[in-house]
């Protein structure tokens, strides 16, 4: 009986201190409310929008492949742009159902291996379900297939049944995965996520903070750093303009802006309405005295600096990369400055361990 009482006492003490910061200063904040806001106000609506966009893309693909024309091609192109934009809103939620579906690697691995795409079409031999096909399908492959030539040449190319099938299968794969992830969120995972409080590696907060940081670093590294050869070990690094996202449609800058705006809104907890977010959580720590600096203000200020550098960029963004000009290098520098604020400082204040590693540095 004494042993049972001791266990109950220890559990009580653990629960009591879980409501306090590591500095033993009480922080008045509801994780439940924040997580519910993320699930219901940001994540589920974002996955619904992405699912709707890929479904429209599937419908436009069916129309285009049945009757290839410049008119049906233009409708398809707009549907792809909508899907890309909707993707930027779910980019930071690659945990839970999205992780189980390998949504990121199957939907937006870029740059696409266009030579292998063409080889597959010519040989009538491909398997989009294979892990080796991740860089030959998804949004980047569709971007290549419908934007790499002028409209008349593209319409002519799609007289080929193999090309029609390849495009159709790419889009069907995108739509199936988008629908599957959305259904899992609305049929149980949203409630599970909202109830998963705490800050251990299996908590919803840990999932959110880690995937948020990964998504941000994909903006910094994959969308800007890699094309600029920032991580090259060559003595004379060569920039790679074709490595940017959405190279063929030249939507690179618009998507980068959309990703950054989405990440800022996620930080704020701002979706269809403005609710509790990571910014409010950090504010609670600052106002209680548990955190010495106003980290929310610093992070938002750095987002403003990044957006100012984005405003200085022009389409096509790939030309900035080709020229390796000061504008895009300044952008990269400002992107880099935010990493320490959200990856080191924010995670430290919230007592969340960063559970992934990257080899690119900060």
From TrEMBL:
Report the locations given in the UniProt record: Cell envelope
**Claim: Lyase is one of the keywords in the record:** no
**Which InterPro entries does the record associate with it?**
Imelysin-like, Imelysin-like_IPPA, Imelysin_sf
Domain named Imelysin-like is located at 43-338
User: Which residue positions does the secretion signal occupy?
Assistant: 1-21
Q: What is its main location?
A: other
Q: Which GO terms describe its cellular component?
A: cell envelope
* Keyword Zinc-finger tagged: no
In terms of superkingdom, the source organism counts as Bacteria
Keywords associated with the record: Signal
Q: What is the protein's name according to its record?
A: Imelysin-like domain-containing protein
Species source reads: Flammeovirga pectinis
Lineage of origin = Bacteria, Pseudomonadati, Bacteroidota, Cytophagia, Cytophagales
